[in-house]
Specification:
The complex is a heterodimer of chains A (about 150) and B (about 350). Chain A has about 150 residues and is an alpha+beta fold. Helix content of chain A is about 35%, strand content about 10%. The chains are: A alpha+beta (about 150), B alpha/beta (about 350). Chains A and B meet through α4 and β2 of A and β2, α1, α7 and α9 of B.
Chain lengths: ~150, ~350
């Protein structure tokens, strides 16, 4: 809704969508780009456009599952790596037992003291479309977030 | 390698293509900033070679009328043992700068302790008593509470109970969600725990924690303080983040006080940062440290050493007293043990 509020809300269809609301959804899903909305580049919407660009920077960083990691906040405790149910199943002796993940391409791995997203294709949100938030729930510094909650 | 960033002494840390894998921010920073702010050998502020610095340190110690050996928390057990011989020879005082009474009792055996592996495999109630794990020993919770163990296969939400006692909602306390409780510290909480464990009255949250204790034989407290109910609660792991502080208590048994001293020998610590300013006025200071510190900037003699665990080997005691053999990735000739041995031989 925050994205929608900043759009022109005229339903002009110049972007190819029926309404500004559906354009807003596609923006978040990265199926459309801000440049597709022509009226937004007129002087009267300049402030809104700048705010939208700011908001969408976060979206750019997000992975296909909507996972966003703020490396500045991360302390590298590894809670997310250890609690991830896929990691526990795939690597019971490593991440499942509290050690560093031993998979070559895990979902998350702590590198240089902060958690990095390596490969989201294993994530339950990606494969099974399950709303799993185990990594975010157990992050003490709120360094992990999902797009739908931002 | 073994990470010596804190007393978790994580053994799964790797260096791969210039990247530090699995270490937390403290450990990674120690490894990545290895060459930043290194100490150099100096005598009276002038740069010199390490042999001259060691000889001058030996001379100063010979002339002194009272010596205090300070630090030793971040060095190996081997170096601590040589420091013990040095202290005996010089009748020196020894101080590691910590004022906790729990580690001494754990080393003596009057408080029961257990290993982190057993906590992971068997513990049900895990209590963090006035200790914010995520800021002092960041991986402690992922290695114990969150990890799945032999008898705790269903994950932390079902197979464990978390209790966090603290004065504020710390990073650790934030994680007290399902099957967990956060108890805000209040005057009389220790008495409440003692009373609740004896079947008496206490505040509701305390009763909840004590009620959970009955569900398992294996419960653990991570704390720095000695509490009268520790042995009734279960096992205790001293949560002292200084890398080898437990080794210090094992070797020395505790601090050794000295009435008067005119020379202070610092091993890997910074008394100017820790002690009241006047304590060191007019005293001669010898510093053995890999890195620059306030102490090394104002010391009479600075002897640069290797970073224990990263550049030199030996053994250290983890927070739970488990002996860990260090596996250094790099090699520097002069480590704390070698420098202290040279000083001891010169006396």
């Amino acid at each position: 809704m925050d994205v929608y509020r900043l759009l022109p809300k005229t339903n002009c269809r110049m972007c190819g969508e029926q309404t500004c609301m559906s354009f807003a959804f596609k923006l978040i899903k990265r199926e459309k780009k801000l440049e597709d909305c022509k009226p937004l580049f007129e002087p009267e919407f300049e402030e809104n456009r700048k705010r939208l660009e700011e908001m969408l920077k976060v979206v750019e960083k997000a992975t296909e599952t909507g996972l966003v990691v703020n490396e500045d906040l991360c302390i590298g405790c590894g809670n997310c790596v250890v609690v991830c149910p896929v990691h526990v199943y795939e690597d019971p002796e490593g991440a499942g037992s509290g050690y560093g993940i031993r998979l070559e391409r895990p979902i998350l791995r702590v590198e240089d003291g902060v958690v990095r997203v390596v490969d989201v294709s294993l994530c339950r949100r990606y494969k099974e479309k399950t709303i799993c938030v185990a990594c975010r729930e157990n992050c003490p510094t709120s360094a992990i977030a999902f797009l739908e909650e931002l | 390698m073994i990470c010596t960033g804190c007393s978790c002494l994580c053994e799964d840390v790797e260096l791969r293509d210039g990247k530090v894998m699995h270490a937390c921010r403290i450990g990674a920073s120690m490894i990545l900033n290895r060459n930043v702010a290194r100490a150099r050998a100096t005598v009276e502020g002038k740069e010199t070679d390490i042999d001259t610095a060691i000889d001058r340190a030996t001379e100063i110690l010979k002339d002194s009328e009272g010596v205090l050996i300070y630090g030793l928390n971040y060095t190996t057990v081997e170096a601590q043992r040589i420091a013990l011989k040095l202290a005996e020879k010089l009748s020196a005082g020894v101080d590691n700068g910590l004022r906790y009474d729990l580690p001494k009792k754990v080393v003596e055996g009057s408080v029961r302790t257990t290993t982190l592996e057993d906590v992971r495999d068997y513990a049900y109630v895990i209590m963090f008593w006035r200790f914010d794990a995520h800021n002092e020993m960041p991986r402690l919770m992922s290695r114990t509470y969150y990890a799945r163990g032999k008898k705790r296969q269903r994950g932390h939400e079902e197979d464990r109970f978390l209790a966090v006692v603290d004065v504020r909602k710390s990073h650790t306390a934030i994680l007290a969600k399902k099957n967990a409780v956060f108890v805000e510290y209040y005057d009389g909480i220790v008495e409440d725990f003692v009373s609740a464990m004896g079947g008496g009255l206490a505040r509701r949250e305390v009763l909840k924690v004590v009620g959970e204790l009955k569900k398992s034989e294996f419960n653990v407290v991570f704390t720095k303080e000695f509490l009268p109910f520790l042995n009734d609660f279960g096992y205790t792991v001293p949560a002292i983040p200084q890398t080898n502080a437990m080794g210090f208590y094992e070797v020395f048994g505790g601090r050794r006080e000295i009435d008067r001293f005119d020379t202070i020998l610092v091993v890997g610590d910074d008394p100017i940062n820790d002690l009241p300013f006047d304590t060191l006025r007019g005293k001669r200071m010898i510093v053995i440290d890999p890195k620059l510190s306030f102490a090394s900037k104002s010391a009479d003699v600075v002897i640069p050493s290797a970073i224990s665990g990263l550049e030199s080997g030996g053994t250290m005691l983890r927070c739970d007293l488990k002996e860990v053999e260090l596996k250094p990735e790099f090699k520097l000739e002069f480590d704390d043990a070698k420098i202290l041995r040279r000083i001891l031989e010169g006396l």
